[in-house]
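Supplementary Methods. Inverse-folding protocol.

Structures were first reduced to a discrete structure-token string of length 117. This string, shown here, constituted the complete conditioning input.
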């Protein structure tokens, strides 16, 4: 069981390490050229990943106060408020970063289209 928990903890930590590796290229010289959404998005990924590790290792699901039940298609599922909040944070972060990337791509394609004329 301990070995399984160690593997799951490492899987939860992978996004934090990837975001840290991507963010390592952001120096004080390149910071003005980096969007704030990207910069803070990487930090949000790191903190949500580390938060997932803490929630997993603390085994917050065993606290009945934080759990609630939801019925989906006739099946009852037990969820934890902290995990739901962390998941929503991760989804919102993804959507913001995705929109930022789409805006940048559109901007550069517009520049390329105008340069051809």
């Amino acid at each position: 069981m301990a070995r399984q928990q160690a593997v799951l903890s490492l899987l939860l930590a992978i996004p934090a390490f990837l975001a840290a590796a991507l963010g390592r290229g952001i120096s004080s010289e390149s910071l003005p050229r980096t969007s704030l959404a990207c910069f803070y998005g990487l930090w949000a990924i790191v903190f949500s990943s580390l938060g997932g590790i803490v929630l997993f290792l603390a085994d917050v699901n065993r606290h009945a106060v934080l759990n609630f039940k939801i019925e989906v298609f006739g099946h009852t599922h037990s969820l934890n408020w902290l995990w739901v909040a962390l998941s929503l944070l991760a989804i919102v972060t993804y959507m913001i970063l995705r929109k930022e990337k789409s805006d940048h791509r559109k901007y550069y394609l517009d520049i390329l289209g105008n340069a051809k004329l």
